[in-house]
Records
---
Amino acid sequence: MKKYLVAGLVLLASSTLHAQILININQSSNKTYPLAMAPFHAYTGSSQKIDPSVELFQTTVKEDLQLIKIFHFIPENAFLEPRSQSRVVDARKINFSFWTMIDTYALIKGLYRKDADVITIEAHLYDVLTKKEIMARRYKGGDNQIANMAHAFSNSILEALTGEEGLFDTKIAFICRPKNDKELCMMHFNGDNYDTLTQHRSITLSPQWSKDGKSIYYTSFVKNKPALFRFDLDKRQNTKLSTFSYSAIGLAMDPTQDWILTTLDIGKNHDLYFLDLDGKVISRKTKDRGVDVSPSFSPDGQQFAFVSDRDGSSQVYIMNRNAKDSTAKRITFKGKSNNDPAWSPKGDKIAFAGMDTDGDFDIFTVNIDGTNMERLTYDTKNNEEPAWSPDGNFILFVSNRTGKRQVFMMRADGSKQTQLTTKDWDHFMPTWQPKAVSATAKPLM
Amino acid sequence: MDFLESKSWIVSLMGHGVVFLVVSNVFSFHSKINLPPPQSNVVWTSIQSPKKTPDHKLPPPKVLPKVEAPKEEPKKIAKPDAKPTVEKKEVKKEEAKKTMSREELLKKALANLDQNEDRPMPKANNFSSQDQPEDQLSSSEIGLLQSTSEFLEYRRLVEKTITSNFIWIRQAPDKKPVIQFFILPNGEISEPKLLSSSNDESYDQAAIRAVKKSSPIQAPPVSLNQMFKQEPFQLDFDRSAS
């Protein structure tokens, strides 16, 4: 009987029910997010000319946010807001229709004051669609701190708009070859402040940041003997920690204890060994006939990935740190040669360089169980030596697509590839400074 | 009295009315309950993410998620011989009636009810005793129009256009907004309205912005103009691909 009643009700309804046309949107477009940054204005005075330090602040913020290619800035000549409103930073008094008309989603406005050598910058971020202020920061410092202030504000903008932690105040260490020798170099995240840190006039390899990000470990073949060095950023000082008794290839800093994992050629075989910072062998980790190189630790330090040719070709393996035997699990099975594994900070993936059928290397990622192999670069000559950003959202790599080997950056899905170095010489082995200790300008509000 | 006591009057009522049940879009109202596969006249679609490449061979370069047509085409119901117009309304009803016997229709209607007993009933305010105005399409006609390839193609175009204008770079809120709008014969999108908020004002506004930026959209096919004037699009912003 229930069925008859239900059917009757449905029949009564059938002649008048509307048939809505349903559309389901479950992804956003690939378009970049439109931002506008109005010229900052002095707290007082009517001068239209912006202080050069403030101009540098604004330019740096723009360059930072454009570098990661998820934002674009509306050009200033499209702005409609009259000059009389440029000093208004109270969201209730801003006429947002001037900004919606030019298709802006978020707006940056700011005020500043310069007292002798100290500058105060007050910067605001607004959601144009909801007509509300999202966040505001005030920075105070000398001219030499402008870039740091700008990077800090870029971080705040990124976090407010995407939820991602900004990395604009971090640095990248790498090996450079300005002449015939390989030296340790460093630059800012955006490619600025390129700096050669060593003058060993030798082969320098395997830069690794310390856990606190205040120093860089590396190996160098000074006087033809491999030695472990540490470069302290604050003191700008090089310290030789030890000379290896054996030829050491590659280097990975243990994230849990200050040990290093490296390849030593003891007994005419290349295996992985734990050493202390004095270069003393602590334990041997791999024992097989193949060559085992390029170790990379998991974030918790309990496992490491490495490359071995034990099965006939170079493939990526992972191994437990405390394994009593040298059993390792192979996680790549395709391609003639897979090298340079880099374990992601999120712990779920390993990036590596794999040789394609054309003989060139490209960057891939694979889950740590060997599934879901994904290709991130394609048809751009050689792309090698991947290194993750501290948040796991970006990957650094080296490519010779523009001639010399240059450092590039891309998002972890392979999109938004950006060249960071442009010097007319080769670059190798980039590595990203840990986020926790990078110098950040402290906002006053 | 015998007549009233027996169930035959109910069966008779069912027989006359079930034609509407089968050909019209009686189950088309928006519901959060699992809906039947797209055999019904309302076609439920979603934009699929690109499939991941298997790891057995070197995969192609990963590209940003693109708006793709649904992988599985909804089943298309045979296009009616005559274009459904207001004047031919009665003819269409007759044609629909002829397609199945009364018993078959009843059986099918009951079977549908069996499958959808957990479906919420239409609300009382959806019922109306007023006669349908002459210039309005009946629900059965709308149901038929929704099954045409012209409709499906146009709806896909609307989906693609709005998706391409939807800019969002943060994690999408759990609750998704629902937006209603009409498409006029000249392609103008009119009366975009937030029916249900995501509780994230910024996300709601970005969704409405996407709809507004899509106007004017390509004008709908003439055969669909009447329906689009009458029946709103309802847009469900499901999740962002951040």
---
Amino acid sequence: MPIHDLGYRHWAGEWTSHPYRWWVITRQGIRMLVQKKRFLVLMILSAIPFVVRSVMIYITTLVGDSARRISLLTINAKFFEDFLSQQMFFTFLIAIYAGAGLVANDLKANALQIYLSKPITRRDYMLGKLGVLVFFLALPTLVPGLLLFLLAVLFQSDLTFLRENYWVLASILGYSLVIVLTYALIVLALSSMTQSSRFAGISFAAVFFFSQILYGILSQILRTTQVAWVSIGNNLSQVGDLLFRHAPQYRSPAWVSVVILAALVAGSAWIVHRRVQAVEVVS
Amino acid sequence: MIIDLENLSVQFGQQQILDGVTVQFVGGAMGLLGPNGAGKTTLLKTLLGFIDPVSGGGKVLGFDVRSQQLAIRQKIGYMPENDCHIPGMNGVTFVAYAGQLAGMKPKDALQRAHEILFYVGLGEARYRNLETYSAGMKQRIKLAQSLVHDPELIFLDEPTNGLDPRGRIEMLDLVRDISTSKSINVILSSHLLPDVEWVCGDAAVIHKGRLLASGKIEDLKRGLGAAFECRIKGDPHAFMEKLQSLGCQCSLGDDGVMRIQMKDGLGSQSLLHVASEQRVQVRHLVPLKQSLEDVFLQVIGESNADS
């Protein structure tokens, strides 16, 4: 029977289980973003450094021991850290493109009432939106990072590289997660504070640039890099150095950067949780 | 029992929004009446679990409003008052997405979305982007998303807002069909009394956060007593004063026609007796059919007089 002849029928199908309800939001968010051509172009561009580094690993294998004299062709922990730090440029752009409108557009269209009138909690909504960002931010960081490591292992004739660098796998995972969660939660928090995705995007960029400019001014005045913790980017670098077992780039203690990033992530999550309400209470 | 509330109170800061609301709804369609700002939407949002009551409580479909909010929302549909949609979606994607959020599998939700969109009259427009929908279509798509998961109860908050007369009648017919033919219980919140009278068998009147009256609309009307349209020869003011002293409500129109709401228990005989006492001639006396508006005006009037 054609659908238009059916009228209203009661439905007695199977329900999905509640713990995975957030995945519905993530899946829909991913689907909507991949339909945008500009976004796809950005994602493809973000894969170029991975291709370049893959070629470098291949060349290193071809050249053999003489490659060790060229620092650029040395495959070690620094190689992977540099790759992830380089990718922060793309994660920054992807966070703005994918994240600025995630909550702001829902606020503008009063969509929260639709979401929260369904059997969905605020936490499900947050997890769903965070899932979209984690997916797209992990694509240029965690995924190629792990693939590069796999390539480096596969291109070696023996297991020496793996034996000496197995811990780098955990560093790649840890550093990628720090980058992804920091960017994702800050942009979500800013998106939840406005109904304009453009404003959220500009605010996100401003937060990063302002903190970097502030560091530049303070380090010039005080003639020390001990104030590196005022910049979000510097904090990420410090944590990267810590995870990849390098001497820190700046003189500020690494634990301060860890605390600041943890506070930023926790504070951002708190803001999103507070702002995601089905009812706006004006006191 | 579909809804059973006991002494439910809600506060925003120091402001009392709902004050000890006690109401029962056994099923069918119930109208939630009240002027703007009376607390109708707050009551619906409290039942949905969006707002925590400060005291009292109750059950919706047997689930506790304080502790079983997800179970309640699984079984109810909500059509919000204001314009709302999920940006960047077309009609069928939006309704299917709403179904998935309610827990339907993607394939089931998509099939159901097509069915529901035809049911609400958006079959031809289902692939259009929501941002291009007219006001009437937006109301229909909100109704569709509230029905997609086949709820046992739906909350409709001002469903005829912004609709032209024809659209309004179509929407009300749809709501009436849902409650009478599809066995879905309906709570219709509206300040438009004819809408409620057209669709609902029960009504609850809320004013300043308090429940003033509730029950079957016919019972509420019966409780008002008789009403008459009356024209007399003689002094209308003395006549009206006498009636008012007996507890009746009177108003005199520009055309000299009086509208008299008799006190419960008094009828035309009493009115004629007063006319005789006041030595006025009754030239015209027609019993009036009571409407929900009369009930509403009376309980609101009494409430205002009390406060």
